[in-house]
Design goal:
Elements lengths: L4 H10 L4 E9 L13 H11 L3 E4 L18 E5 L2 E2 L11 E2 L1 E4 L2 H10 L20 H13 L3 E4 L2 H4 L15 E6 L5 H15 L5 E5 L12 E5 L4 H8 L5 E2 L3 E6 L2 E2 L3 E2 L5 E7 L12 E7 L2 E8 L5 E6 L5 E8 L4 E11 L2
Parallel strand pairs: 1-2, 2-3, 7-8, 8-9, 14-20
Antiparallel strand pairs: 1-10, 3-6, 4-5, 6-7, 10-11, 11-20, 12-13, 12-15, 15-18, 16-17, 16-19, 19-20
């Protein structure tokens, strides 16, 4: 149940040279042009410092100019954009939805937009693009291209835009993100998105749970993401986002099965799972509260342990022949799920 010195040495070696960064993966700024954000990047810089946020993904609509502004800083702002698709037209196979494409900066974003003439991208810092219609096959090609360019694809606020009772309508590719915590951990939107995520896992889909505040007015720390990265640079963040080794929430979770970290897949035969929880962001760190770690597989909760946020907490178990293992962190005093670690899947 509790991790041994050998377990901990192995986990630490897998995460050597990395530290916890807390930030936002879905926001908008007042960058001019077609942006609908209400505050400039200068606001974000000051607010993020006050909130002790390391990064924010600014995903302004129909343009790339936000990534060319003088206030833009690599490692502080992650680039990309949030288009829409489908528009519910009868000749379009992709339902009405939004999608986030995160890249290290403008060049990869522009290459993606140029690669798909449907966007009618005008090119350059002041160039704009439209929201095109896609068939489901073409939309899959778009996601594949995002991945090939080093980007990260997320289906944001899924239940808040799409209307379907079929969970598979919300899935387009494995190894993509779906926004589970939206606006805040206790919002009505998160309450709607969480069952969808569980349904997709139950259907065998390998998707990663994400958080996003979708802030337009002011920076907020209510829907943070935690990434263990080597340095404060976008390429470092994205190298871990792209493989699912991050936490949907403001708590640091490090997990492995043998040499495989969160988001990956490996054989569970003869495996050893190790989990450590630490690095609570100040927005949720409360020494007077009790927190709970739930270790979960496809059959339900395997183990449940209460602990304090003041010290790292670790467990380890021998793996069984189940579909996956994942973790959730609760604030017991609030009876609130505050963080979800991404699964490790069994490669049978």
């Amino acid at each position: 149940m509790y991790a041994t010195d050998k377990d901990m040495a192995h986990l630490e070696a897998l995460y050597e040279g990395r530290r916890a960064f807390h930030g936002e993966l879905h926001d908008h700024a007042a960058s001019g042009g077609t942006s609908d954000g209400k505050r400039p990047l200068s606001h974000w810089l000051g607010a993020m410092e006050a909130l002790e946020m390391d990064f924010a993904a600014i995903l302004d609509h129909k343009q790339v100019r936000h990534m060319y502004l003088p206030e833009w800083k690599d490692g502080t702002f992650i680039g990309g954009t949030e288009p829409g698709a489908g528009l519910s037209d009868t000749d379009c196979e992709v339902p009405k939805l939004h999608y986030n494409m995160l890249f290290p900066g403008p060049k990869a974003t522009e290459e993606l937009l140029h690669h798909f003439p449907e966007y009618q991208f005008e090119g350059g810092a002041e160039g704009h693009f439209i929201y095109p219609k896609f068939t489901r096959e073409r939309f899959g090609e778009l996601i594949d291209k995002v991945k090939s360019l080093g980007g990260f694809f997320v289906h944001p606020h899924p239940k808040q835009v799409m209307v379907s009772d079929n969970p598979l309508d919300y899935w387009f590719r494995d190894e993509t993100g779906i926004e589970v915590i939206y606006v805040s951990a206790d919002s009505q939107y998160t309450e709607a998105n969480y069952p969808l995520y569980l349904d997709l896992l139950a259907a065998g889909k390998r998707v990663w749970c994400c958080a996003g505040g979708d802030e337009h007015l002011c920076a907020s720390d209510k829907a943070l993401t935690t990434i263990y990265a080597e340095e404060k640079k976008n390429v470092s963040y994205l190298s871990h986002l792209r493989v699912g080794d991050f936490v949907c929430g403001p708590v640091g979770i490090r997990m492995c099965v043998n040499d495989t970290r969160m988001g990956g897949k490996c054989s569970f035969a003869g495996g050893r799972l190790v989990v450590t929880v630490s690095d609570f962001h100040k927005s949720v760190k409360n020494p007077e509260h009790t927190f709970r770690l739930d270790l979960i597989n496809d059959k339900g909760v395997v183990e449940s342990h209460e602990f304090s946020c003041e010290q790292p907490f670790s467990i380890a178990i021998d793996t069984e022949d189940v579909a996956f293992y994942r973790t959730e962190i609760f604030d017991v005093n609030k009876n609130l799920r505050i963080a979800l670690g991404n699964p490790i899947w069994n490669e049978r």
